[in-house]
Backbone:
């Protein structure tokens, strides 16, 4: 079993957005192609896994049988209640735990894989959250990431910048669309070993949340 450190009393409380997200997220999985991307994200994952910002547990069904345990961290109470149902149905053991990414209630070097899936957009402190993931991974452990973020340039990036400084975080439960997740992962000390840039959905007009990266990074051994 995993062992707790002192659990943070910090929490996230967005009840209106959480109820909306819980109703709409599952329906959007097939329409936006997210289910296939989640399967791609988690293919080949093995051992003990920590997932931050588990939301309603949409990743849980895609963990392969090579996973021995998932410790899923979710700070929002409404989303955590919904995720309990997904955890009960998962083919692998899932332990759903309250907590924030910036202060993970687990021991250092305790996990083989960390999963960050559409969560770095909404954490309060991206660098600190990634530092925590680096801490809890064993040397050589993997970070699997699927994150939306800043467009490569042009008008969409300008729109993202403007939205982040006005209404977007207020309307979307603290989400930011102009962050640079790949740059932050590298700056935190991870070695990126594979990444694919994509748009979600892949067809149709680009939205502020469309540009995304999906890939794998590692905690250095030395």
Residues:
């Amino acid at each position: 079993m995993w062992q707790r450190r002192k659990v943070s009393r910090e929490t996230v409380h967005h009840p209106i957005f959480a109820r909306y997200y819980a109703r709409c997220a599952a329906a959007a999985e097939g329409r936006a192609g997210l289910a296939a991307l989640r399967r791609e994200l988690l293919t080949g994952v093995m051992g003990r896994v920590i997932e931050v910002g588990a939301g309603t547990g949409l990743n849980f069904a895609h963990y392969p049988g090579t996973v021995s345990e998932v410790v899923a961290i979710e700070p929002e109470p409404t989303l955590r209640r919904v995720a309990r149902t997904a955890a009960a149905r998962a083919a692998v053991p899932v332990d759903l735990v309250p907590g924030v990414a910036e202060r993970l209630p687990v021991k250092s070097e305790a996990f083989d894989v960390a999963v960050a899936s559409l969560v770095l957009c909404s954490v309060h402190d991206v660098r600190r959250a990634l530092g925590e993931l680096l801490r809890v991974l064993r040397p050589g452990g993997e970070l699997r990431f699927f994150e939306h973020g800043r467009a490569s340039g042009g008008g969409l990036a300008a729109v993202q910048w403007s939205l982040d400084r006005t209404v977007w975080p207020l309307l979307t439960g603290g989400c930011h669309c102009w962050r640079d997740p790949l740059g932050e992962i590298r700056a935190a000390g991870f070695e990126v070993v594979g990444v694919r840039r994509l748009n979600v959905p892949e067809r149709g007009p680009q939205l502020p949340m469309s540009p995304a990266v999906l890939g794998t990074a590692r905690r250095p051994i030395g």
Observations:
- Residues 88 and 134 are 28 Å apart (CA to CA).
